[in-house]
Write a structure and sequence with these properties.
Two copies of one chain form a homodimer. By secondary structure, chain A is of the alpha+beta class. Chain A has two domains: about 5-145, PurM-like, N-terminal domain (60s Ribosomal Protein L30, Chain: A, 2-Layer Sandwich); about 160-310, PurM-like C-terminal domain (Phosphoribosyl-aminoimidazole Synthetase, Chain A, domain 2). Chain A contains eleven helices and 13 strands. Chain A has helices spanning about 5-20, 65-80, 100-120, 170-180, 185-190, 190-200, 205-210, 225-235, 250, 255-260, 265-270; strands spanning about 30, 35-40, 45-55, 85-95, 125-130, 135-145, 160-165, 215-220, 240, 280, 295-300, 305-310, 310. In chain A, the strands form three sheets. In chain A, strands 8-10-7-11-9-12-13 form a seven-stranded mixed sheet. A four-stranded mixed sheet of chain A has the order 3-6-4-5. The longest helix of chain A is centred in the middle third of the chain and has 18 residues, at about 100-120. The radius of gyration of chain A is 20 Å and the shape is globular. The interface between A and B is large, with 77 and 77 residues. Strand 2 (about 35-40) of chain A pairs antiparallel with strand 3 of chain B.
Chain lengths: ~325, ~325
Amino acid sequence: MDDLSLAELGERESLRRTVARLKPGEHAIVGSGDDAAVVSATDNFLVSTDTLVENHDFKLEWSTGFDLGFKSVASNLADIAAMGATPTVLVVAMVVPKTTKISWLEAFADGLQAACDQLSPGSAVVGGDLASGEQVVISVTVHGKLDGQKPVLRSGAKVGDVVAVCGPLGKAACGLTLLQSGQQDLIRSYDDWVAAQLRPEPPISQGVAANLAGATAMLDVSDGLIKDLGRISKASNVNIEIDRSLLSGYEAMLDLPAQSLGLQTLGWVLQGGEDHSLLATFPPSATLPRSFKVIGKVVAKSEHDVLLDGQPVEDTGWDSIAGN
Amino acid sequence: MDDLSLAELGERESLRRTVARLKPGEHAIVGSGDDAAVVSATDNFLVSTDTLVENHDFKLEWSTGFDLGFKSVASNLADIAAMGATPTVLVVAMVVPKTTKISWLEAFADGLQAACDQLSPGSAVVGGDLASGEQVVISVTVHGKLDGQKPVLRSGAKVGDVVAVCGPLGKAACGLTLLQSGQQDLIRSYDDWVAAQLRPEPPISQGVAANLAGATAMLDVSDGLIKDLGRISKASNVNIEIDRSLLSGYEAMLDLPAQSLGLQTLGWVLQGGEDHSLLATFPPSATLPRSFKVIGKVVAKSEHDVLLDGQPVEDTGWDSIAGN
């Protein structure tokens, strides 16, 4: 069968074929096809939105449609996990050139579904919008439920709390550096690191686990460890001290590709975004979920938001407007 | 004070200035600033998303930032009204060139707030995302509540129901034709029609009124009367007969600009989108809200979805991929 473009198929048929690849999930009472979806809820809900823009957040020569569907869901699910909550439903607004092939959009839908199934079973895409434009833009809005728990904000860190991470640090950034190197042999050899950039797998279920364990503040590391630690320290009016020796496991995970590229590992660990790992603070008495590893502690407010082995660290993480 | 660009201000300060212009509304428990907003709810919620793309859905030489903020909220609120529900909270994902001036983004925020205040008091923008790209893209996701009512779907129209409209038909399309004409004297003379295109004011509260009056099917007229009637007829497996004499009031409203442009009014009424008026079916016994005007009736399924005075009408409404 011919792989037609969206312009050749028209909006209605393009949407029909795409939506047909999505499963309704556990939470939709009325799904796609009306002016709005109806979502089951008995209590307050959470909502967050995040956008990926072609040539700013991804390149079509590096990411397949499947990759982009997977990543856009994964990064959004992490925002709900970071509130200590469980993702429920997502809606996806897509802008694509009208020359886009339907096979690309179908693969994108498969990526959306795969991320829901793999990272947060029961969650689902229940609605969306398809429009044409000059560059691909993917806006995902995700919802979550608290099941009677309080949300974990950025502003609750207390002096004396431990700082802990669940998931890799710098792995997605290492994958990006590999892609940017253009060295196909390295990209093939280190496909696991490249996959961390293209299809991140944040530990979604551990957000609720952290909440139940008493996490006082949490977010997902989307723009780099130092930048995101700075957000907690500003919102909570505290400082955070990181112990480099506690980062050694994260650095070790990046050692092989770093050696091949002739680069250091620490920059990726401190400044690399897009892992969407969970970064949380816990009271010193808390029993942390086993997936969380301590990397530092919360101290009283002074001049610098974040210190590494007692020294201030410059925040050079991602700025979504400047694009660097 | 200098009108700096977003690139000069950076993401954080650009967001801070924009968010500062938005009021929290009645439904946000946790607003902007965390990974997700927390929204009060006691029951199922509705969600819908809609995107506006520069040079496809709007032109920056015709629309101010305020206009676009207003229109993007208005069109989304109409999707909740069309389900017979009350809008609660919105999240807004924006893509803008990094050369965009902060004054433009501030005016956009003022337009968002003005539309919430004017069209659905109590509703509010509670979160968003700001990213840079080559063209302006505005993705709004809107939520609503049913307050114990059932949602009004597209699929409930029954043979014998009356078909009725609340709000103008063709006025926004007439405004678009005026803008496209480039005739500045006409654009100034018919500023009310132009405003209907740039800042539509759909009758949001009448969605709940229609629901309480027993509406069996409803949607908002976003892509043209015939196209949107076709959606109800397909979803409900019925046909719809429109009586042209009942459209005369809508045509009369467009008579002056039509004469000035040397055009007929019927095309705008039948095919013009973007009024976001409410289009509903009601049982013949229902007492319609006074704002709804009957334009036709629901009849048994036969060959053509929509008939005007007994003749099939071609659907030439808006296709968001083809862009025509």
